[in-house]
Amino acid sequence: MNNKIFKKFCGILGYRIIDKNLFKNKRLISTYSVQNIKNFLSKLFIENKINNIVQIGANDGVIFDDLNEFINKYEIQSLLVEPIKDNFDKLKEKYINSNFVTLENSAIFNSTKDLFLYKVEKKYLHYYDIHIPGITSLDKNHLLNHGVKLKHIVKESVNTITIIGLLNKYNIKNLDLLYIDAEGYDGNIVLDFLSHSILKPIIIFEYIHVQNEVLNKVILKINNDYKIFSLNENLVCIPKIKNISISY
Fold first, then answer.
1. 31 inside domain
2. pLDDT digits (tens, 9 = 90+) for 124-143
3. Which of 49, 73, 123, 130 is most buried per CB count within 10 Å?
């Protein structure tokens, strides 16, 4: 199919094809920039602003994980959520001696029905860079937009739980940081959280893959209670009621 026709067709369906070099360049710049998410998180932990965490999309505790070193260093009470079995098993091994970490093998969704997540089949991972294992998504097009070949994609059935169901399951009454990397579904999770919880944590989520309509709803809903700013590919949301400086 002609590339222009394909892009137009995806646009009609509500998807946008973005040059995969954009993502690679953004990640390269964020790695060396003094203004990056890791430096900002470091400031929060040094100032003792974070004592408990819910991390959605924890992966294997290494790839795409900006929180791991802080969780271990400060022994932060943490609930880490990862739906993919292979990643979850690696996560269990990584935190096997960390009694301050709880793990949940589910996908966060707005209902509790079983879902399929799309990922690159393990035997094809060597064709791609190290970021590809971290782009598992509910949307197959998310992988295609990152340059993954259709024949290399498989789907895995996963259990689901709502964000409020998760908080209730683990009796979470206090929350300092909600950190989300759900490869495009992030905005939906934030909306569900804001609609059903009275908690006011710092919220950090990857916005770059979120559909514009959903992101607009998030910003309109969060604007009264939060100060927001973008940092690399993340939207950082700071509760106005908390004395937290956004400079570092």
1. yes
2. 777 787 777 767 777 788 78
3. 49
